[in-house]
Amino acid sequence: MREVLLKAPGTNGTLERWDETKFTWQEKDMDVVLDLAQAGGLVLPLSGQVDQLIKLFHANDAQNLLHGTEASYLGKKFVALKPSEGGLG
What we know:
By secondary structure, the protein is mainly alpha-helical. Helices cover 49% and strands 9% of the residues. Strands 1-2 form a two-stranded antiparallel sheet. The longest helix has 15 residues, at 25-39.
């Protein structure tokens, strides 16, 4: 999917530099969401859960998911699809 999106007319710096990212931007973004919600008196319990899940996802996890044959996240093992199984090959 990344390769397809990179060919789209709109640019996305994160997708272009995906392999070099340290995966800290999403933590910052979620911190902003939670700070704004608290300042506005909003209760966003799902956002708190997403924040915690993001903090458990690291750059090496993304590398394994994107380029490896298998990866694990939150104790669950994920196996890469063969090109013919992904529906695009």
